[in-house]
Design a protein that fits this description.
This protein is α/β, with parallel strands linked by helices. It folds into two domains: about 200 residues, Isopropylmalate Dehydrogenase, CATH 3.40.718; about 130 residues, Isopropylmalate Dehydrogenase (3-Layer(aba) Sandwich). The chain is about 40% helix and about 20% strand. It has a ten-stranded mixed sheet, sandwiched between helices. The longest helix is centred in the first third of the chain and has 19 residues. It is globular. The two termini are about 15 Å apart.
């Protein structure tokens, strides 16, 4: 297979971890007889410095013409002014919108050899293997109108609106059921239907879509009780589907189950095969340039890229198996609690050395 992949290294440790993921992809291409062509573009703070915008038009055009996009991380203290008109995070929102990406997939799987790293007791994380599907284009983050105005008393009030359409809900829930069919056939739809009208619509449509998948069980969970269940009985989850803000919060909570943010990948998908793949960690400016960042989340994001955008399941599994083997054999960066941690490049080398057909 020949494939065009856009790389968006971004800020902080982004260039370091994307570099290692690219080298893993090159190793996979050589092992399985593929050819991957790369183009590197700006996004986030580095784009603001170079062009004045967080997502230059050239970046969007390149991504639209590619088969997949691999992103590092964006942001950092240099651009961390809440009052700034242009912020790195605007690049993420813009590229998701520009590529029509509406579903964020975050798999969470506990690695037994790293159970001690989780703040939870080992028995709480044993058997954890689920995926969270977060809706990306609707909800509180995108609702209009929003803004500030004066109150009659001379104060200030801020308004945000939460809007969801039936179309937005139906497509994300249908994706959850489709993925559940290939897993343990359980969908947990998370909402706040006891308070929010948008959540009542969400639950109604989840029930309707569920009837199309009689072989998949549907359960409903209020977001507050779901947050508690994630730290008490997380192994009971299979596929979680939820709206934008709830998903944003719950996926960060779920990250502690694996023991380190550096381990977890994500994929943002739309109607076609084109997807955006990135680790869930941030730009970590405090360790940028030191060669100690964990590239595992980005390498596993590259595996998701192979699976979802390029349809290369065997190749994706090869990367995942190599990562597991490297970690189980003691190849640990500093975030994994190693007494003698290895470097970013050494971790990438360890994964590449364990790749097998």
């Amino acid at each position: 297979m020949n494939a065009k992949i856009v790389l968006l290294p971004g800020d902080g440790i982004g260039p370091e971890v994307v570099g290692e993921a690219r080298r893993v992809l090159d190793a996979v291409a050589k092992l399985f007889g593929h050819q991957f062509e790369y183009a590197e573009h700006l996004l986030g703070g580095c784009a603001i410095d170079a062009t004045g915008t967080a997502m230059p038009e050239a970046t969007l055009q390149a991504c639209q013409g590619a088969q997949a996009v691999l992103l590092g991380a964006v942001g950092g203290p240099k651009w961390d002014d809440p009052q700034a008109k242009v912020r790195p995070e605007q690049g993420l929102l813009a590229i998701r919108k520009g590529l029509g990406l509406y579903a964020n997939l975050r798999p969470v799987k506990a690695i037994p050899s790293l159970a001690k790293l989780s703040p939870l007791k080992p028995e709480r994380v044993a058997g954890v293997d689920f995926i969270v599907i977060r809706e990306l284009t609707g909800g509180l983050y995108f609702g209009q109108p929003k803004g500030r105005s004066a109150t009659p008393e001379g104060g200030v009030q801020a308004v945000d609106t939460l809007i969801y359409t039936d179309v937005e809900i139906r497509r994300i829930v249908r994706l959850a059921f489709t993925l559940a069919r290939g897993r343990r056939k359980l969908v947990t739809s998370i909402d706040k239907a006891n308070v929010l009208e948008s959540s009542r619509l969400w639950r109604q449509i989840a029930i309707e879509v569920g009837k199309e998948f009689p072989d998949v069980k549907l359960e409903h969970q209020l977001v507050d009780s779901a947050a508690m269940r994630l730290v008490t009985h997380a192994a009971q989850f299979d596929v979680i589907v939820t709206e934008n803000m709830f998903g944003d919060i719950l996926t960060d909570e779920a990250a502690v189950l694996a023991g380190s943010l550096g381990l977890l990948p994500s994929a943002s998908l739309g109607e076609g095969k084109l997807g955006l793949y990135e680790p869930i960690h941030g730009s970590a400016p405090d360790i940028a340039g030191k060669g100690i960042a964990n590239p595992t989340g980005t390498i596993l994001s590259a595996a998701m890229l192979l699976r979802h955008s390029l349809g290369l399941e065997a190749e994706a599994r090869a990367i995942e198996a190599a990562v597991s083997a490297a970690i189980d054999e003691g190849c640990h960066t500093g975030d994994l609690g190693a007494a003698k941690p290895i470097t970013t490049t050494q971790m990438g080398d360890a994964v590449r050395a364990r790749l097998k057909r």
